[in-house]
C-alpha cells in the first residue's frame, strides 16, 4: 500500500490490480494492525472523521468486501 493525502493505492496480488482507496478506506487499513479489533478500529475512524459510531462500524466491516470486489480505473498490471 502506498498512502497519499487523499487516499492510497493497494496492489491486489491475486489478480495484479491496483486499487484506489479513498481516505476513509486508507485509514481503516492503517488502523488494522492485528492488535486492534473491529470495534477499536471503528472508534479511531469515528474520531478521525467526526462520524457516528454506526457509520464507523459500517465502514470498518464493509472494507474487506470492497477490496475483493472493488472496480478501479487504475489499469491491471500484466506480464509482457
Compact summary:
By secondary structure, the chain is of the alpha+beta class. The chain has three helices and three strands.
Protein described:
This protein has helices at 23-31, 38-49, 53-69; strands spanning 2-4, 7-12, 17-21. By secondary structure, it is of the alpha+beta class. The chain has one domain: Orthogonal Bundle (Arc Repressor Mutant, subunit A). It has a three-stranded antiparallel beta sheet, covered by helices on one side. The radius of gyration is 13 Å and the shape is globular. 16% of the residues are buried. The model is unreliable at 72-80 (pLDDT under 50).
**CATH topology-level fold name:** Arc Repressor Mutant, subunit A
- Oligomer state equals single chain
- The shape, in one word, is globular
* Strand residues, percent: 15-25%
Give the class from helix and strand content and strand pairing: alpha+beta
- Helix tally? 3
Helix content bin? 40-55%
| Level-2 CATH architecture | Orthogonal Bundle
Question: What is the rounded Rg?
Answer: 13 Å
Unreliable segments (pLDDT under 50, ≥5 consecutive)?
Answer: 72-80
Largest sheet entry: 3 strands, antiparallel
| Total beta strands | 3
Q: What is the CATH C-level name?
A: Mainly Alpha
SSE sequence, one letter per element: EEEHHH
Number of discrete domains: 1
CATH superfamily: Coenzyme PQQ synthesis protein D (PqqD)
Ends distance: 23 Å
Q: Going across the major beta sheet, what is the strand order?
A: 1-2-3
Jot down its keywords:
disordered C terminus, Arc Repressor Mutant, subunit A, three-stranded antiparallel β-sheet, 18% strand, alpha+beta, 80 residues, globular, 3 helices
